[in-house]
Each structure stands twice: as structure tokens, then as C-alpha cells.
């Protein structure tokens, strides 16, 4: 029995001590290097983290893409301007005029059709346009040379597009192979196959292939479009050559008729 007034001693309940969190089980292949991996996997971040060779490849492909679009804009403007001038001159040649009148009308012009007319007029001034049987052959030779020169001038620059379209994918592939090779070397040095370690290097390498395709596909499309426009322009020059030959034949017929009437 407890004496009165004596306080009952209650056993003190010991509170369970909080256990320390269990140490996390290390992931196989995880190294301290994973904490230093780049987290910026945007195109610019991958470019900045790429190897110097891969960077050089991507810079070259970006420059090639800039060249492609510069040639595209310049040649489209030039072809549209020259085509419009050629159609205007051909319309004038279709009228009932003489070669000398056409030459005076095109004397100040620098377009291809004006040069065709000027070349034919120059040969007419040097030849006997009535009794010379080889006059038309010489005019055709002059016109073919002028037409070829104008075709070469209007096609200038398109060869660069063909070169970019053919070589850009392989240049990008070279950057990819180089980047993946460096990634495998990094895997060997880190003694890990963790995807978090491997992925950034492979992504940077594949960016070079993407850049190669970005440079090559527009170059091929633009080149094919410009070739079609150049073919149409050459057809216009062929029509202009035919119109000039018609003017020469018409002038010869008129002169022969005047000589025959004078002889009567």
C-alpha cells in the first residue's frame, strides 16, 4: 500500500528515438561525374558544349545555309527582272519593224535580247545583206554565242547550291561520327554506361547531322527551282533569236523586192 501523500511514481515511458534515414542504395554506374553534367540541352547549349571539331562543322554548315539563302534571293530577283525585260523586248520584235529600227530601240539596253539585236545589226553592217549567201549563217553563229554567254551569266552561282546540297549531309555526318567517337571515349574513361552520362555527348553529335540536313534540303529544293526558271529563260532567248532571224529574213525580202522593182 502506498502511504498517503506519497506521490505515485509513474514509470517514465521512453520515447522511441528517431531512426536515421537509411542510406540510399547507390545506383549501379552512377558516378560523381553525373552531378557535373550539363543541364542545358537546347540547341545553343549543345553547340556550346560540343567538341571543337563538331563546333567547326556546325559553323561551316550554318555559313553554307546562309550562302544558300543569299543566292536564292539574289537569283530569284535577277531572273524575274531579266525575264520581264526579255518578254518586253520580244513583244517589240514581234511588231512590223526592221532590224535597224529594233537596233535603235535596243541601243541603250543591257539585257540579253538587246544584245542579240545589237549583235545581228553589227553583222548586218559588215555584210552584204542581199547577195551574201552566208550572211544568215554568220548571224546565227553570232546569236548562238551571245545566247550561250547570257545563259552562263544567268546560271552563275547555282553550282554552289548543287555543291552544298550534295556535300552538306556528309559534312554533318562527319561531325556526328566525330562527336560519337568522343562520347565513347568519355564512356571508357568514366567506366560507366549510365544514359545520363552518355546522352549529352550523343545529342551534341546528332546536332551536326541535323545541321547538315538543314543546309542540304533547302539547297536542293532551291537549285531545282532555279534550274526550271533558267530553262524557261533560255527558251525566251531562243524565241528572241527566232524573232531576230525573222526580222533579217523580212528585211532581205523587202530589199530584194525593191531591187527587182528598180530593175524593171
Compact description:
The protein has 264 residues and is mainly α. It is built from seven helices and no strands.
Textual characterization of the structure:
The chain is mainly alpha-helical and 264 residues long. It has one domain. 73% of the residues lie in helices and 0% in strands. The chain has seven helices and no strands. Helix 5 packs antiparallel against helix 7 and helix 6 runs antiparallel to helix 7. The protein is rod-shaped. Mean pLDDT is 77; it is low at 1-38.
Keywords:
disordered N terminus, 264 residues, 73% helix, mainly alpha
What's the topology here?
Elements: H1 43-49, H2 52-93, H3 99-105, H4 112-126, H5 135-154, H6 158-190, H7 195-263
Helix pairs in contact: 1-7, 2-6, 2-7, 3-4, 4-5, 4-7, 5-7, 6-7
How many helices? The count is 7
What does the average pLDDT come to? Answer: 77
Oligomer: single chain
Kindly give the count of domains.
Answer: 1
Structural class: mainly alpha
Q: Which value, in Å, is the CA radius of gyration?
A: 40 Å
**N-to-C SSE string, H for helix and E for strand:** HHHHHHH
Shape: rod-shaped
Q: Which strand-content bin applies to the residues? A: under 5%
For the report, how would you describe the main beta sheet?
Answer: none
Amino acid at each position: 500500500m502506498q502511504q498517503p501523500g506519497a506521490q505515485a511514481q509513474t514509470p517514465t515511458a521512453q520515447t522511441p528515438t528517431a531512426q536515421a534515414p537509411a542510406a540510399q542504395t547507390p545506383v549501379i554506374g552512377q558516378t560523381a561525374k553525373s552531378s557535373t553534367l550539363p543541364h542545358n540541352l537546347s540547341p545553343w547549349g549543345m553547340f556550346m558544349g560540343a567538341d571543337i571539331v563538331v563546333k567547326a562543322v556546325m559553323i561551316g554548315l550554318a555559313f553554307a545555309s546562309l550562302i544558300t539563302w543569299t543566292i536564292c534571293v539574289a537569283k530569284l530577283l535577277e531572273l524575274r527582272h531579266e525575264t520581264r525585260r526579255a518578254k518586253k523586248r520580244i513583244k517589240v520584235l514581234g511588231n512590223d519593224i526592221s532590224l535597224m529600227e529594233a537596233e535603235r530601240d535596243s541601243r541603250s539596253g543591257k539585257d540579253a535580247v538587246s544584245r542579240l539585236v545589237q549583235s545581228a545589226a553589227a553583222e548586218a553592217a559588215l555584210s552584204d545583206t542581199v547577195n551574201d549567201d552566208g550572211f544568215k549563217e554568220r548571224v546565227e553563229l553570232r546569236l548562238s554565242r551571245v545566247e550561250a554567254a547570257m545563259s552562263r551569266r544567268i546560271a552563275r552561282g547555282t553550282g554552289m547550291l548543287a555543291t552544298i546540297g550534295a556535300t552538306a549531309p556528309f559534312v554533318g555526318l562527319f561531325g556526328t561520327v566525330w562527336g560519337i567517337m568522343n562520347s565513347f571515349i568519355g564512356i571508357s574513361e568514366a567506366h560507366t554506361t549510365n544514359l545520363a552520362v552518355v546522352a549529352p555527348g550523343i545529342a551534341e553529335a546528332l546536332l551536326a547531322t541535323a545541321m547538315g540536313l538543314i543546309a542540304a534540303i533547302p539547297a536542293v529544293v532551291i537549285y531545282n527551282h532555279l534550274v526550271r526558271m533558267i530553262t524557261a529563260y533560255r527558251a525566251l532567248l531562243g524565241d528572241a533569236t527566232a524573232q531576230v532571224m525573222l526580222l533579217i529574213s523580212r528585211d532581205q525580202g523587202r530589199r530584194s523586192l525593191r531591187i527587182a522593182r528598180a530593175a524593171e
